[in-house]
Design brief:
By secondary structure, the chain is of the alpha+beta class. It has five helices and two strands. The chain is extended, with a radius of gyration of 18 Å.
């Protein structure tokens, strides 16, 4: 089987974490890997928030459906669709972009 497909089949969700800090070098590498994901025209219409504040992490664990593993993780990333990047890019090029609507990120 294709190794990429195999890695998708082998993927498991992790809910228990080692009590081991993530170095700044490892953190940087993880974030760089995130940015390697393909996007249409390499527009990368997302923003990644690296949550490093423990109090915010605790709040997230409660507000995100009471998922305590969020509070236990050594690294928490939030991925946000960022239509403003798309709009700013096209506005900069004087393309008169339409405002993104509800279906702009539709997966269908």
């Amino acid at each position: 089987m294709n190794p990429i497909i195999q890695s998708l089949f082998d993927r498991k969700s992790c809910r228990i974490f080692k009590d081991k800090e993530i170095s700044q070098e490892e953190r940087k590498l993880i974030l760089e890997a995130c940015m390697q994901a393909p996007s249409a025209g390499n527009q990368q219409m997302y923003t990644i928030i690296d949550v490093q504040d423990k109090k915010l992490q605790e709040t997230l664990s409660k507000t995100c459906d009471n998922q305590p593993f969020i509070n236990q993780a050594k690294m928490v990333l939030i991925f946000c669709a960022d239509f403003q990047k798309w709009y700013d890019l096209f506005s900069y090029e004087n393309c008169n972009p339409r405002k993104p609507g509800v279906g702009a990120m539709s997966l269908s």
